[in-house]
Amino acid sequence: xxxxxxxxxxxxxxxxxxxxxxxxxxxxxxxxxxxxxxxxxxxxxxxxxxxxxxxxxxxxxxxxxxxxxxxxxxxxxxxxxxxxxxxxxxxxxxxxxxxxxxxxxxxxxxxxxxxxxxxxxxxxxxxxxxxxxxxxxxxxxxxxxxxxxxxxxxxxxxxxxxxxxxxxxxxxxxxxxxxxxxxxxxxxxxxxxxxxxxxxxxxxxxxxxxxxxxxxxxxxxxxxxxxxxxxxxxxxxxxxxxxxxxxxxxxxxxxxxxxxxxxxxxxxxxxxxxxxxxxxxxxxxxxxxxxxxxxxxxxxxxxxxxxxxxxxxxxxxxxxxxxxxxxxxxxxxxxxxxxxxxxxxxxxxxxxxxxxxxxxxxxxxxxxxxxxxxxxxxxxxxxxxxxxxxxxxxxxxxxxxxxxxxxxxxxxxxxxxxxxxxxxxxxxxxxxxxxxxxxxxxxxxxxxxxxxxxxxxxxxxxxxxxxxx
Length: 469
Known about the structure:
This protein is of the alpha+beta class. It has two domains: 23-97 and 147-314 and 355-462, Outer membrane efflux proteins (OEP) (Up-down Bundle), CATH 1.20.1600; 101-143 and 316-348, no CATH class. The protein has ten helices and five strands. Strands 1, 2, 3, 4 and 5 form a five-stranded antiparallel sheet that branches. Strand 4 (315-328) and strand 5 form a beta hairpin. The longest helix has 68 residues, at 356-423.
């Protein structure tokens, strides 16, 4: 009884020391989120990060394009298949807790045959070939005494969550890309309209300058300069039209459609969603796919560490076989056959494995530390992106009225200089300068309006794409 008692005591001690192997992942205490948004303090209320993408992008035409992309884009469909693969692996990990059963029936036909069919050898050859058969059923069961199977299952669950997060990342990126290209087309439309109107104005100025030269109030240099600017604007129109075609083709590719015209509304129709004035709760960052993936990588490293630690403890396996056969060892062939049963329980304790188990455990601890630092850095990056997007939106909004005032003032300056040129000897360079300044200001106004949209899209991504349902 003494050896049995020693065995029970040793096994009980091993169980007590392995209690940590049954713990679930918890975020390490050293992961901090203080001041993660910089000087934009986190708020207590829920805001922009909690709304569905349809409430962020309210344009019905854009919503239709996004829905088409989500339904047809191959990256989304591939993400669904990856999730299915991970779920299959999880099911396999769950089934590892149950015994594995195998059934392998076999039959044998054996005997000596005289190729010459000689009568004098028939008695020695026997009465024909012997026939044996067996119907074995084997069972093998690994008892999860030290949570190796449990941690493997937990790791598989993390893998499923990770694949779901990958799909969310694809979806968020897809929505942002479609919205960005859509409003880029709207911006290019406005720039093209401004360029065409400017070309008409310069054509009129060119005709006026030619008339003034004929009247002796201008010269060839003024005509040539005005004409050169007119052709430059015409060339810019061609460039804009080509750029629009390129963006339309790129968006068609995302939509998995053949290249063609993309319907869109004016840039001015974009309505920026109401933002949370006190900031954003830190919890909103947990929606970001990269933050999720970083913590899931940390969780996976935690379970890897537990799996590596469980290798220090003994493994208990139970196996049993049963077969119906007419070939019984030590007896020979009997008919009808008999039932043979066997059961074995084995306990294997690693003692010396050339340091492989200890090295694997040390490596798993190092990987856990690496994943911890990676998660902390990902949180810092996410907070920085949110802060940058919020500051950019604020800056673009502040510039909006200023640029609008600039455009109005330059429009008045152009009107005044054109009238003076027709009625007096005002230098054509003043008209040229005023119109060039107006064109630049108008393009800046369009670019700034687009920047508000682009920064809102950036904030949408920085907060993880909002609520998914």
